[in-house]
Every structure is written in C-alpha cells, then in structure tokens.
Amino acid sequence: MATVQDLKRRIRSIRNTRKITKAMELVASARLRRAQARIEAMRPYADRMTELMIGTARASSSLQGLALLQRREAQRAAIVPLTGDRGLAGAFNAQVLRHAFALERWLAGDGVETRWLVAGKKGRSTLSFRRYEIDQSWIGFSDRPAYHDAQAIARKAAELYENGEVDRVVIVYNQFVSALVQRVVERDLLPIPEEALARDEGEESEQALLGDFIYEPEPEEILQRLLPVYVETELYRALLESAASEQGARMTAMRNASGNAADLISSLTLDMNRARQAEITQEILEVVAGADALTG
C-alpha cells in the first residue's frame, strides 16, 4: 500500500500536469477561433474564383487542351494526407493516416500504384517508420498554414499529374465540423472534377454569368491560368480546415485530460486520507499497547 508521502507526491505531480493541460486547452481554444476566422475570410475568395472559372469554362469552345482536366485510366495515384506537426490532439492524426492506408489498400486491389506526398511531421514520421517511399513532404505550418504552403503542395501535385507520373491525386484530411467533431474527408484534387466547372451556385450566380462578356485573351488561355489557382485554393481550404480540426481536437483532448486529472486527484486524495487515518489509528494502538505493557 502506498504511503501518505507517496500519495502526496503523486497528487502534486498530477496537479502540475493538469496546469499544463489546462494551459494547452486555452491556447488551442484561442487558435481555434483564429482558424475559424481565417476559414470565413477565405470563403468569399474561393466562391468568386469558382464563379469566374465556371463562367470562363462556359465561354470556352473546347476544354480538351487543358492538362489539369484530362482524365486518364488510373494506373498511378498520389495520396496526400494532411496531418499535424505535433501530437496531443486525440485521434486527429491517426484517423487521417488510417483512412489514407485504407485508400492505398483499395487502390492496390484495383492494380493502382500509389505514391505519397505528405504534409505534417506526424504523417511523415509514420510513413517513414512503415518504410514507405515519400516523394516529398512539407512540415512546419500545420497549425497556421499560409497560401504559399498550399501553392508548394499544389505545384508538386500538378507537376506529377502534367508529366504523366500520376493519373490521380487524392487529398485526405480532417474537415472541421465542430470542436468535438472532425470528419475525415477524401477528395480528388486532380484531375479537377467536372462538377467544379458546372456547379450550381444559385439563381444570382447564374444571372451574373449570363452577361455578354468579351474575353481577352481567349477563354481557353484564361482557364489555363485559372485552373492551377483553383487547385491551390482548394488545397488552401483543406489546410485551413485541417488546422481548425487540429486545434479543436487538441482542445477537446486537453479538456478531457484535465477532467481525468481532476478525477484522479480526487481518488488519490481519498486514498491519502484513508492512509493518514490508518497511520493515526496505528499510532493510537501502539500507544495503548505500550501503556498496557507499563501498567501490567
């Protein structure tokens, strides 16, 4: 049975740990609010980009010459899991990687060779530990991604696709639903889905795109420049969603850890009081026994 001093040391250690988890919860909460604000701020830009691309595609006489729209029989695919640089975020990293490995097995069953591009230290270290060959990795920005980070990933993915090294690029990431819920999403990044050029944005958008526009240069050339930007924008949106999900998962994990620490402190305090009472009772018995021995 643990002594009173041992229990005191354990309680002190757990209290110190609870201070750390509480501080991490508050930091994650503040970062989550900022991440949500960044998602809200980029949505108008992404929506306008989509509208512009739809309008230009409708004005184009042919889309056959646009490399990022060309569909080929998938023989090689690139999987891009978006993970975090740090742990202590519950199942945030594990669920993305589990989904990515399941996707790899499914592709292998169809005879598709898989290549890996990965964002985040956790994803890179897991793939390296499992001895996967990584074409390229990006680290250091999972909690606060910038647009140029999305550009770097998008350019590498587009380069592999345009050169015919892969026939499909899939991103796997956590979509932010709430601080308690992060849903793993698998999305085809390349080739650009057909629905991206024919999305119904509502009657207002339809009317805005029906005007008589004069394109200079030709719509096909404009679209050639817009498509890579669209890929970058979609990746940036995914990175922001992943960043918000990471902070939400970390906040929830640290809150649960703080609650568990409080429960453990209560349990250990009760054990300590019992041990102290047992020591006091033992001392009383020893005193009584000694007094009986003297009087006897």
Structure report:
The protein is α/β, with parallel strands linked by helices and 296 residues long. The protein is 61% helix and 12% strand. The protein is built from six helices and five strands. It has helices at residues 4-59, 92-109, 121-129, 147-162, 203-208, 219-295, and strands at residues 76-81, 113-119, 134-138, 168-176, 182-190. Strand 4 (168-176) and strand 5 (182-190) form a beta hairpin. The longest helix is centred in the C-terminal third of the chain and has 77 residues, at 219-295. It is elongated. The two termini are 34 Å apart. 30% of the residues are buried. Residues 201-211 have low confidence and may be disordered.
Strands, helices and their partners?
Blueprint: H1 4-59, E1 76-81, H2 92-109, E2 113-119, H3 121-129, E3 134-138, H4 147-162, E4 168-176, E5 182-190, H5 203-208, H6 219-295
Parallel strand pairs: 1-2, 1-4, 2-3
Antiparallel strand pairs: 4-5
Brief sketch in words of this structure:
The protein is of the alpha/beta class and 296 residues long.
As a whole number of angstroms, the C-alpha radius of gyration is 29 Å
Q: In terms of per-residue confidence, which ranges show pLDDT below 50 for 5 or more consecutive residues?
A: 201-211
What is the strand arrangement across the widest sheet? 3-2-1-4-5
Tally of separate helices: 6
Beta-strand segment tally: 5
Structural class by sheet pairing and helices: alpha/beta
Instruction: For the record, give the distance between the C-alpha atoms at the N and C termini, rounded to a whole number.
Output: 34 Å
SSE succession = HEHEHEHEEHH
Helix content: 55-70%
